[in-house]
């Protein structure tokens, strides 16, 4: 028997997703059940006092998120290089000189 208390809408610029939620009490009581019900495409939000506090996702979904995050970081690094990023060493030297500069 599923003990979902409500659905909430997770909004991103691309889409809106209904996410099942469960209270922390229900989650603690049936953690194995909820671990078995989480799929790659259906996360579970855990709420405390009517507010979501965590989201349980499958490991496959987690791997996809990490992959997307890594691709995004790589793309931003490439854009930074193309726009004249001066590098870590020069950035640190500029920061140190600004910090040590007397007013």
Please tell me about this protein's structure.
- The protein is of the alpha+beta class and 103 residues long.
- It has 2 domains: 6-57, 3-Layer(aba) Sandwich (YefM-like fold); 60-100.
- The chain contains 4 helices and 4 strands; from the N terminus they run E-E-H-H-E-E-H-H.
Please supply descriptive tags for the structure shown above.
4 strands; alpha+beta; 103 residues; elongated; 4-stranded mixed sheet; YefM-like fold; 24% strand
Per DSSP E runs of 2 or more residues, the count of β-strands stands at: 4
* Order of strands in the sheet with most strands: 1-2-3-4
At CATH level 2, the architecture of the largest domain is 3-Layer(aba) Sandwich
- Domains counted in the coordinates: how many? 2
Helix fraction by DSSP (H/I, runs of at least 4): 40-55%
How many DSSP helices? 4
Uncertain runs are none
Query: What's the mean pLDDT score?
Result: 80
Cα(first) to Cα(last) distance is 67 Å
Q: Note the beta-strand portion.
A: 15-25%
Give Rg in angstroms: 21 Å
Tell the overall outline: elongated
| CATH fold annotation of the largest domain | YefM-like fold
Helix-and-strand structural type: alpha+beta
**Main beta-sheet annotation:** 4 strands, mixed
Tell me the CATH superfamily of the largest domain: YefM-like domain
